[in-house]
Write a structure and sequence with these properties.
mainly alpha, about 70% helix
């Protein structure tokens, strides 16, 4: 279990330290998600919102784990995730359209499934 906790800690450190998105956007997307969930709950109720949220988080976890594995813990380029070699070692430079398209796809899947159940 300590290795698993260390892996989570490593991921959290990467998420906090990366410069793939501006710092203000890292904070803003929490409010975007909270606002979306509030509106979804208002329109469709708590049950469908909880289902949506669980499915969305699960799908995004899969995306995260896929990128983590394919980039060898965010140390090499893969698809639209670009890593540059610097004097301090590899540094993530950018992430592109595929990543953001998967977010939109996952939102749509979560909406469809939450409405279907």
């Amino acid at each position: 279990m300590p290795k698993f906790l260390q892996e989570i800690k490593d991921d959290l450190n990467f998420i906090k330290s990366h410069t793939l998105q501006p710092q203000w956007y890292k904070v803003l997307k929490v409010f975007i998600l909270a606002g979306f969930l509030a509106g979804y709950a208002y329109l469709f109720g708590f049950r469908k919102t909880a289902i949506f949220f669980a499915i969305f988080i699960f799908l995004m976890l899969l995306v995260h784990l896929l990128y983590r594995a394919k980039t060898e813990k965010f140390q090499k380029s893969w698809l639209d995730f670009i890593v540059e070699e610097t004097a301090d070692g590899p540094k993530a430079k950018s992430i592109g359209n595929f990543y953001y398209a998967t977010i939109v796809f996952n939102v749509l899947c979560a909406i469809i499934i939450s409405q279907w159940l």
